[in-house]
Specification:
Layout: E1 3-8, H1 15-27, E2 32-35, H2 52-62, E3 67-70, H3 81-94, E4 101-103, H4 108-111, H5 121-139, E5 144-146, E6 154-157, E7 169-172, H6 176-185, E8 188-192, H7 196-212, E9 222-229, H8 234-244, H9 260-267, E10 280-281, H10 285-298, E11 302-307, H11 312-322
Parallel strand pairs: 1-2, 1-11, 2-3, 4-7, 7-8, 8-9, 9-10, 9-11
Antiparallel strand pairs: 5-6
Helix pairs in contact: 1-2, 3-5, 6-7
């Protein structure tokens, strides 16, 4: 059965407050946490952007059952892939069987703060692929090196603290080429909510890549992140979406936008109709349950839901009582 997870928006909440919400989510039947790895929030209104690796260490130490991971870390700019491998191995050693490593090719909002230049998408993809190769080498636990790469170098070295089983590597993608590469080279896939026909295509390409590599895609994790807005009334839910998560109503790629202030200027163009077919806005819990169920039926193993409003405690309790029991 599908696991329903809680999407922890570190862009929106103080880390201590968000830790309490995540603990509450575990108590109310959420089976996992997907933690945002950002250096800046999307828009200034969101107000936070804590360091996800510190936060996940606290999450693992103060919960007992939920699985969790970053959704997602870019191992190419702010972090060298060897540092990502060390951080992930340490977290997995401290929380055996609970941690997964989510990776992506990055967004200028977070990565441009240290990059000397911001490359085109195909270059960012190639950098991530090389970074994944380095991480996999280090996860072997052996002494390894990387002295023939195009984008990265690594001296002869090994990870000295390793879990008994390395954490699974999941890659985030919304494109068919990366989805197929992920199936062939990684352990699972992460993708954001989209039209069912697009998601069906992505899963198909992921499965195609896995089978070409001799793997069984049915045994590989398939994670989905869904943004939604739920509140007592439609008007409140809509206002939460417009105020707190206007980026959810922007129907274009966002990887090249560099600052929260730039996003805030674009957000002035967002209207209620901008969210149509992009984010469910409703006070009806049955409607949210049915919306999530269609993605369970598509074959996703984990669906991490993010309610974009500030009403997190109310949302967690309502979904725990009236939505999750009917889905998982």
């Amino acid at each position: 059965m599908a696991r329903i997870g809680y999407a922890a928006a570190l862009e929106q909440f103080h880390p201590t407050e968000l830790l309490r919400y995540s603990q509450l989510a575990e108590q109310h039947g959420f089976g996992g946490v997907m933690a945002a790895d950002h250096f800046q929030p999307w828009v200034p209104q969101q107000g936070h952007s804590a360091f996800v690796w510190s936060w996940m260490a606290a999450l693992g130490a103060t919960t007992t059952k939920i699985t969790f991971g970053p959704g997602v870390t870019c191992p190419s700019f702010r972090y060298h892939p060897a540092i990502v491998a060390q951080a992930a191995a340490t977290q997995a050693a401290m929380t055996p069987g609970r941690f997964w490593l989510g990776l992506g090719s990055g967004e200028a909002l977070n990565e441009r703060v240290v990059a000397t230049y911001w490359p085109e998408p195909h270059v960012r993809l190639a950098m991530m692929q090389e970074a994944v190769a380095i991480i996999k080498k280090l996860f072997s636990g052996k002494v390894v090196r990387h002295d023939d790469g195009r984008y990265f170098r690594m001296e002869r070295v090994k990870l000295w603290t390793m879990p008994d089983v390395p954490p699974p590597i999941l890659v985030a993608t919304s494109g068919p080429i990366t989805a197929e590469w992920t199936g062939a080279n990684c352990d699972g896939i992460i993708t954001p909510g989209a039209a069912p026909e697009k998601l069906r295509m992505l899963l198909g390409r992921f499965e195609q890549g896995a089978r070409k590599a001799g793997k069984d895609p049915d045994k590989m994790p398939k994670l989905l992140q869904l943004h939604m807005s739920w509140a007592d009334t439609y008007e409140e839910a809509l206002q939460n979406a417009i105020t707190e998560w206007p980026n959810g109503g922007m129907p274009f790629p966002k990887q090249d936008i560099r600052s929260p202030e730039d996003f805030a200027e674009i957000a002035k163009l967002v209207r209620p109709e901008s969210f149509k077919n992009r984010m469910l806005i409703s006070p009806d819990l049955d409607e949210h349950r049915d919306y999530i169920k269609q993605f369970v039926d598509l074959g996703f193993d984990e669906i991490h839901v993010h309610n974009v409003g500030r009403n997190q405690e109310q949302f967690i309790k309502a979904f725990g009582e009236q939505v999750i029991p009917h889905l998982s």
